[in-house]
Amino acid sequence: MEYSELSKINLMDLLAQAYQVLSDKKEREDQIATINRRVHQTLNKPVGFQGVLKWGIPAAVFLIVHVIVYSVLGIGVGIISGGFAAYYAYNYSSGKKDKALAKDKVAQYRQLASKAKNELEIYQASDAFIDSLEFLLPEMKDIYAVAALYNILNSGRADNWKESINKYDTEIHRFRQEQNQQEIINNQKRQMMNAEQNNILLNRITTSIGAQNAMIATQITQIDNITKTTTSIGSDINAIKNR
Questions:
Q1: How many CB atoms lie within 10 A of CB 243?
Q2: pTM over cut 0.90
């Protein structure tokens, strides 16, 4: 099919159909990403107590149950009862039950993710999916490019397929230039902030050095005064001795 000969309305219909199949694809991909996030959250969720409480709770339960049962039924039964109580308390404090539940939940999530991936692969290999994207260039087979092409035709910025592609290339080129310029501006801002912080630090260091120099000069003056005073006292002592 020669797409350059299609009317604007027909092209927009093709783009709308392509957008729909790509939207279905993205929805499946988002489902897989959500499942993977849940797997990560479940695996990294803290369970049970940490540190002293993990062992402290079972130990305290053992002592309490042992003392109570020992006072009624004797030491042997007290130890056995305390051991059972400590065992169940440890399962609670260590989160053993929660870990088992988390493991089952992760297995279920991974099963769902595997099923979703298989469904996505089957969908992408289907004739409906492939045929709906056949008229698009490889770099335009994503939902954002299709939406941009549809808007170009719908807004009247292009009236045929060739014009819409040229307009898209122009706009995407300008967008990338703007992104590069913005990145340059951001880098310049970061450099200016770093330079300003370095200047502030340098000023603090200079101020500190100046304060230290002033303190040293004051101390030297004080030492000179002490020396002069000592010399004067020595002279007075000598004068007294020579009388």
A1: 4
A2: no
Query: Higher model confidence: residue 117 or residue 56?
Result: 117
d(CA 170, CA 167): 5
- Structure tokens that stand for 215 in this block: 């303190």
Which token pair is 227? 């020396």
Listed residue (20, 242, 10) closest to 132, CA to CA: 20
Q: Treating both helix axes as pointing N-terminal to C-terminal, what angle do 96-124 and 75-93 enclose, rounded to 10 degrees?
A: 30
Mean pLDDT of 190-211: 67
**Between vectors from CA 165 to CA 169 and to CA 1, what angle results, nearest 5°?**
150
Distance separating the N- and C-terminal Cα atoms of the chain? 131
Residue 105 contacts residue 42 (beta carbons within 8 Å) = yes
Q: DSSP letters along 114-152, please?
A: HHHHHHHHHHHTSHHHHHHHTTS-GGG-SHHHHHHHHHH
Within 8 A by CB and 6+ apart from 160, the residues are: 4, 6, 8, 11
Whether the pLDDT of residue 150 is over 90: the answer is yes
Q: How far is 53 from 192, CA to CA, in rounded Å?
A: 50
